[in-house]
Amino acid sequence: MGARLAKKSPLLPLYERGKCNPSPPLCKGETEGILERLLARFLRKEKMTILCRFIAKGLEYVVGGLFIVIAATALAQVFTRYVLSNSLTWTHELDILLMIWAVWLGAAIGIHRKAHLRISILSDRLSERTQKILMVVIDLLTLTFLVVVGWKGIAVIESVEGTVLTSMDLPRGFVVSAAPVGAAFMILFFLPILFEDLRSLLTQKGLRS
What we know:
mainly alpha
């Protein structure tokens, strides 16, 4: 049976001579090239980038609407207090609630735009490759912090379960849920930044090797 298979297989002489290797080992450069292609595929504009841009644009409209409502309720409070002499009791607490949500969602938009402040006094003195390594480390620390914020935010929601706001019949968990929701959006917007920094580091490393 084995002799028949050997006669029917035209590749057997090539395997014996070492001219045909079905699974050659990957060298270091090929491995880095595969990682770069995977990162590039993840960051394709028709996928992750466009999705983040679409979500960020929606959040901009939501935050803009929140500020419009805050301004309207503030004007209503002034009018009812000084004109009607019968101020509304729920506007102040509603404004605080909306402001909390606007801050967390606005922070996510800031990450998408890369608009957050960054101190570069020390990093400017480092070499280009060291700066890129430092950027990846900072990205990982930031991502870890956001994960912890979201995780602890969920724990806070569970701790205030069953309680309501003072002037409005709304669950208090609706207020504190802004933290995990905002953290989730920030993680979503931060992943492309992390992968872009990783790709930049791997690309420079591949060019120097």
